[in-house]
Amino acid sequence: MAFFSPIFSSRPRRSDRLAFRASSVASAIALLTATGLSAQSLTDIIITDTAPSQVSGFGDVPLRQAPFSATTIDRQTLQDIGAQRVSDALRLDASVADSYNSPAYWDSLSVRGYTLDNRYNYRREGLPISAETMIGMDNKERIELFKGTSGIQAGTSAPGGLVNYVVKRPPSAQNTTVRDVSASFGPGHSSSIALDLGGRFGQDQALGYRLNAAYEDLNPYIKNSEGHRRLLALAMDWRLTPDSRLEWEIERSERQQMGVNAYSLLGSELPPPVDGKRNLTRQDWSVPAVFRSNVGSLRFKQSLADGWLWTTQWGSQRLKTDDRLSFGYGCGTSDYTRFCQDGSFALYDFRSENEHRLSDALQTSLSGQAQWGATTHHFSVTLLRHKQLDRMPVNQAFALLPTPGQVNAPFTSQPNPDFSGFNTQRSEHSTELAVQDRMTLAKDLSVWAGLRHVVLDRASERTELANPNAKRFKNQATTPWLALSKTVADWTGYISYGEGLEQFSVPNSTGTYWVNAGELLGVGKSRQTEIGLKSPATKMGTQGHVTLFKIVRPLAYDDGNGSRLLEGQQTHQGVQWGGSWTDRQWLLDAQAQWLHARINGVTTLTALNGQIPVNVPALTVRAMAQYRFAGIPGLRSSLRVNHEDTRRVTEDSALLLPAWTTLDLATHYDTRIQGTRTQWTLAIDNLADRRYWRESPKQYGHYYLYPGAPRTLRMAVKTSF
């Protein structure tokens, strides 16, 4: 919760409530389109093989030729799986797992076993943003994931990878328009309606627009966690001349929902998996958390002589959060790590009102190519100035209630919004200069090189007047990235080395767990070596890849005495492989990651040396089989398999979370109704209705257990006029 982890925004105005309910509109659309069905063959959507250029910075390089690991989840896939948050999308990748990923809170994920930092590992249109909020997917064109240490892409970030949101833009063709209406029902009893409009107008169709609006009535499978969300977004562009373009977009969103508390260990025991439908700590007086966001960007592109391109863009984000939860945390006041053996737990009334987070970024870049002798250089020079301010309320409530909670039976308590806790304010400014060069030595041999110089100025201060514990940190560092790639018969092999910077700090606890709460611990450097081999799509319909990597990262851990220390290191070595095969109506796709993770170099709490980090599965598998029915054009069914291996719940390996496997079944039908394209989806997740613990993170000194979702049904329809 935000009382553990601070951030900012100027106060957005309250958006107007949409004058319709999603459930009624969804029913109306289904009724109108349920007649006159005529199966017609539809043109398949072409998925391009392009690397995430906004994140990597190397332009539109085909992913099969890029010397790094990346994944792009396109709009059609987002629609097929009904993704409403980034964790829904990235869970398709074997390198991604949950990491304190609460159902009614912002996404928290790990990549290659390292938890992404929501303050530094997320981008929007290539610019840094804070992901300590709920981010809607209705106006997103695709999600890009760059895997591994990201010093060439970011000034500071955790070494797992970078996530980039790319928004929907106006159509480029003059005679192309977008007129889409979609509705869905489920999982649970949630219902949604969304509108997507786009086109061009003006002289020579110089102006383009893309409007997205969405509303969802949240009533998920977890009982007593109801709420709603809404989104309104507009993107436009203006072709000033054949060589210059101005693009701008703005997005406004709000999500209000009752929070969901995780389970925990019962004393020294791992309890059996529970019914994931129960909201453990919900009380009659509980109030919902509210996430509001205003975010936008402005970008100018100018084509110069000899194919050079100058791009300048500015992005701004304003977040406001009312973070609230009836919070179960520890056994009494003597053991914060777990619930009591008898199923009781300490219950707190947590409220942090008017949290504001602000992020501004200004970036300018120049890219092009030049021929020096027999070598072609593809240059890019980028200058980025970024400001991030966390303006938290002076006081927050984290009050222990006299009546404890109970896992095994219903319970009631009384509220105690005692706003006597304190917060941490943070101010961060950075300037980054990045230089990149892709040198083509021969037709099939390239050297990739980059340097990023970062100047950091960061400060933190507690809101407690008697003990503000003000800290200021100034530093500058340079991180390199180097790769060599060779392509033979369209097969690409590469080896790369990169470094990254990461900001470490103590969570902003308002309780007594940390004696140095909110303190900046400094910046550490991570290192990664990666070797990869990628094959193209063949005439036999097969393609594949294999990647070996090693990442070494500084370790921040709790010493058990109320302090967080920056000491030792955490090393992850792994291999990820994957491939796909198509034959007539069949498509098979599978990928897996095996990870060997260890802690070493700790001198204070030496028992950690040689241990496996908690909540890191050694093996993760994602696979899908899809069949297109030849006799019914437009009809396809798919079965997805998700498997995650055992993982440690406690540092000493005394308790292990069992491995789990789920099956997700979906059927999609694309047809035309009186010339109008219509796409239908019927999906069942967790087909076998298996009960399992999906993850076991340790956060804020506490062992958490999140149950997997039960069998759920989802129905959706999209109409394109």
Give a written overview of the molecule:
4% of the residues lie in helices and 54% in strands. The chain has 721 residues and is mainly β. The strands form 6 sheets. The chain has a 22-stranded antiparallel barrel. A 5-stranded mixed sheet has the order 1-7-8-5-6. Strands 14, 37, 38 and 39 form a 4-stranded antiparallel sheet that branches. The longest helix has 12 residues, at 22-33. The relative contact order is 0.14.
Percent range of helical residues: under 10%
Structural class: mainly beta
Write down the overall geometry: globular
Uncertain runs with pLDDT below 50, 5 residues or more?
Answer: 1-48
Put simply, the count of helices is 4
Give the beta-strand count.
Answer: 40
- CA-based gyration radius: 25 Å
Topology:
Layout: H1 22-33, H2 53-56, E1 70-74, H3 75-81, H4 86-90, E2 96-98, E3 109-111, E4 114-115, E5 122-124, E6 127-128, E7 140-147, E8 161-167, E9 178-185, E10 191-201, E11 207-218, E12 227-241, E13 244-257, E14 263-264, E15 289-303, E16 309-328, E17 344-345, E18 347-372, E19 375-391, E20 395-400, E21 405-406, E22 421-422, E23 424-442, E24 445-462, E25 471-488, E26 491-505, E27 520-534, E28 542-558, E29 564-583, E30 586-600, E31 619-628, E32 635-644, E33 647-648, E34 656-657, E35 660-673, E36 676-685, E37 693-695, E38 698-699, E39 702-707, E40 712-720
Parallel strand pairs: 5-8
Antiparallel strand pairs: 1-7, 2-3, 3-4, 5-6, 7-8, 9-10, 9-40, 10-11, 11-12, 12-13, 13-15, 14-39, 15-16, 16-18, 17-21, 18-19, 18-20, 19-23, 20-22, 23-24, 24-25, 25-26, 26-27, 27-28, 28-29, 29-30, 30-31, 31-32, 32-35, 33-34, 35-36, 36-40, 37-39, 38-39
